[in-house]
Amino acid sequence: MIQLKTLLNCIDNSGASVVECVNVLKKKRPATIGDRIVVVVQKQRAATSEGSSGTALANKVRRGDIRHAVVVRVKKELQRADGTVVRFGDNACVLVNKSGDPIGTRMNGVVGQELRGKQWSKILSLAPINV
What we know:
By secondary structure, the protein is mainly β. It has one domain: CATH 2.40.150.20. The protein has one helix spanning about 120-125, and strands spanning about 5-10, 15-25, 35-45, 50, 55, 65-75, 80, 85, 90-95, 110, 130. The strands form four sheets. The protein has a five-stranded mixed beta barrel with strand order 1-2-3-6-9. It has a two-stranded antiparallel ribbon with strand order 4-5. Belongs to the universal ribosomal protein uL14 family. It comes from Penicillium oxalicum (strain 114-2 / CGMCC 5302).
């Protein structure tokens, strides 16, 4: 259950590490897996050098940027239609642009299967594991 001021891990390679929720974009307040939220980047990942050329990889987002994101993992237990209960170890999200396309090109970690029912197939295709 994600609400105002909740800190989330960003699991894509957009350059953000930790983001803070500032708005939930749905009528009912707490956001769950598959819901769109507005976040502010709190910590950004250090730019790493790429290969032997020594050129620094530019981050796509910076600290203080306001972006849209999709929640992909929540700590709160979530009961599915078949009766199984799923709970993740942290709150995590993926940054998206205004049209809904992911900003990053790679994801680290698992995402919830509930994204399939909420039409986030691009995020599911980038994720290594769907639970």
